[in-house]
Prior knowledge:
Oligomer: single chain
Number of helices: 17
Shape: globular
Largest sheet: 6 strands, mixed
Amino acid sequence: MNYVHRELERKFLKMNDNFKAVLVTGARQVGKTTMLRHLAEGTERTYVTLDNNAARRLAQSDPVLFFQTYKPPLLIDEIQRAPELFEQIKIICDESDENGLFWITGSQQYKMMKGVRESLAGRIGILTLYSLSQREKAGVILDDELDFSLESLLKRQKKFEKNDIVKVFNHIWAGGMPAVQNMDSEMREDYFSSYIESYLMRDAAGSGGVTDTVRFSAFLTACAALVAQQINFKTLAEAADISEPTAKRWLDVLQGLGIIYLMKPYENNELKRLVKAPKLYFCDTSLCAYLSMWLTPETLMKGAASGNYFENYVVMELVKNYAYSKSKANICYYRDDRAKEIDVFIEENNIIHPFEIKKSANPDLREVKKYSVIDKASLNKGAGGIICMCQEVIPIDRENCLIPCNII
């Protein structure tokens, strides 16, 4: 597979000019190393991976000698395997006026991030890379920020092909792991089986102290069955035959490894009776489909869970967009104790953009009436709509549009 331009490159290079070290976190095999090695081409930057036993032992036992052997500018891969390096990186950063001394990758884990924040605060920029977005796979480079006004959406859709449900579910089923993109069903199953055994189980044991691989595997499958739903720890615990506290700890482990994304419910003092439980999404829809045994895009598209996978796909496209863009946003969902729910709130610059997510190409336009809850709470409501399988942007009213899912 040829190198795919990553949207995070812009932000990474800008951060490199302003920090002495830059850390790119994310799940295993999403392309962190490939991106950084691509950006390092033609430079004198040295590369070392701590998956290498000899390099890791040296890093753990003698960090000073490690940096005499591997001098900056340096790309260090999988630094969570030798957190002993952080203190020495701090010393080298403090002795130099240069920025961009260290490029670091890490499969994000709480233990590692704690070490980063304690040792390298103010010296390091931290970014997250996810698996390939639909935009990256399509080779669409967007200069403009995501703007939900009618004018901006009409301009944006010109850069994309017409929305097509078969293509969308091919993307959902194939996910964004670079290595999987050109694999057939048989090889994809072998890849994810190996991914879970080689990386996920090992990292879960190393970072989260997970020793019961049989129950952890059952827990992982139970998470996939709850995709795009509110977390129910009782259900997860029963499915894996573990206690609820263990289920909570293991969910933290999966989140720390970049396997799942937990979307928090909206919180506001004016809106009473709001639920507290987050919703569970998989960072890569293909891994989720593998765990639930959806063996082809067609069976997934026609299956009972297709709407859940569609929602997962849209949510993660939004997450990736804001992880790589200039502007930051809080992505959450709304649900009250009367089960009134709005799929996504994007809170940006103190303005809430509300969205429903529907697999239909012709969803019920009355869905947007639910958004009045924002007005009742005297919050600032911005442009919103229904993200769906429609083929073109269509205004619903002055504030809302039908938005083709493939242009977000």
